[in-house]
Prior knowledge:
Structural class: mainly beta
Amino acid sequence: xxxxxxxxxxxxxxxxxxxxxxxxxxxxxxxxxxxxxxxxxxxxxxxxxxxxxxxxxxxxxxxxxxxxxxxxxxxxxxxxxxxxxxxxxxxxxxxxxxxxxxxxxxxxxxxxxxxxxxxxxxxxxxxxxxxxxxx
Length: 135
């Protein structure tokens, strides 16, 4: 699925069935065919960052808010869910998420609606971690 196309650049989602190694590709713009090649690397998970550069605060929702500072892990005495947005996850396995050495409950791990290749993990921080967290 093509995500973006401009002179000199094309972004697309590589089919999950395509394994690592060299792969041929053909682009058809309706007027001409352009053949090329690419190397498919081994997929590895990566968390999107708010800065868009892969560093700094992760692209995470604290409940329903984009929040970059420390936050409470409970709201009105209940665990506040956190959603993490990432790529490269194996959809056949539930990921194990830890924070500060503590395993978190993963309530959902799968495709994020409307964005091919984007994965979402919803998790609940452990109760009693009143110090809060930082997405």
